[in-house]
């Protein structure tokens, strides 16, 4: 599942009360540390963020994602409408499948990255990032004027839990009705189905934002607490831990998954981000098509401009968001002794990798510096740290 740049507190949210998850009492009882995440008061960690990270990589982790949005698109024109509103081809998504896509502005900039699930032939569930939910709903409503569709923002009534990790299937299979275990075991990646948990029908998707196998569960907010407790109890035998946003960020970074507001935003296109999600073959004239076509023809992200790359730290200190990426002075033939190293990009996300044992980062750098093996530096508070361009993801689960 995709996230927004919800880690940065805005002036607006600073002046208003943070929204609470329906599981706020559960988190408080577990002694969670909280943070502002897109206007929501969400758990950052419960104990050791490294232990939570390791649990997801080796066993299972339980996440509260109830801050995410849920927007239902229903009607005879649903597929055609989404093809006009977003860059992907939703008419080709079969019932019971999901698609990652982008909602773009007319200039090609990204309003949000999101997942769309095709629930029925004429019904989709769109899941935007929490901080972008209002902007997504507004854009969809504006773009729906000429289509036979209804758009319902159901976010207030839906909670979202995730179980991620190599033992996630085992745990979820034990929680559903015995005659539904085959549904869980046979559910493909980026697929969705309905199962029964604790007597309640829930929507179960095999999606996630950690680089591990896992599931996301959509259910009514008044049933979230019971399911959270039941999963924690069942998960004791498989090593499950409740997990917060801190380890979610380190997990998604290792998996090379973009975060809105860091790797994605209104000032970047899918070509710079290296996301092959734009369907120019579909018939619909989707919003942003002309600008994106022009960017593609100009070679943006390939022969011009910048592209998102992975950086492996060769030293001990990790680069952080906003820090400069530069050429090593010894390799910069055009360097001016008085000017210092030449800046070629900027870090978007970075931290020490708990799994790999060395620093990693994502950064936008000039296209001529994007070949794997290229040596660069990150300016970490005035001290250059050596890095090497590498292919992403940094970590990939062997299935």
TrEMBL record:
Pfam families: GCV_T, GCV_T_C
Region named Disordered: 1-20, 320-357
Aminomethyltransferase C-terminal domain segment(s): 308-395
Keyword Transferase on entry: yes
Sequence ranges of Acidic residues compositional bias: 329-338
Compositional bias (Low complexity): 1-17
EC assignment: 2.1.2.10
Recorded superkingdom: Bacteria
Keyword set, alphabetical order: Aminotransferase, Transferase
Domain GCVT N-terminal: 25-277
Enzyme class: transferase
Reactions the enzyme catalyzes: N(6)-[(R)-S(8)-aminomethyldihydrolipoyl]-L-lysyl-[protein] + (6S)-5,6,7,8-tetrahydrofolate = N(6)-[(R)-dihydrolipoyl]-L-lysyl-[protein] + (6R)-5,10-methylene-5,6,7,8-tetrahydrofolate + NH4(+)
Family: Belongs to the GcvT family.
UniProt cross-references to NCBIfam families, sorted A to Z: gcvT, PRK00389.1
UniProt function note: The glycine cleavage system catalyzes the degradation of glycine.
Known partners and oligomeric status: The glycine cleavage system is composed of four proteins: P, T, L and H.
Full protein name: Aminomethyltransferase
Record organism: Nesterenkonia halobia
Lineage: Bacteria, Bacillati, Actinomycetota, Actinomycetes, Micrococcales
Gene name linked to the record: gcvT
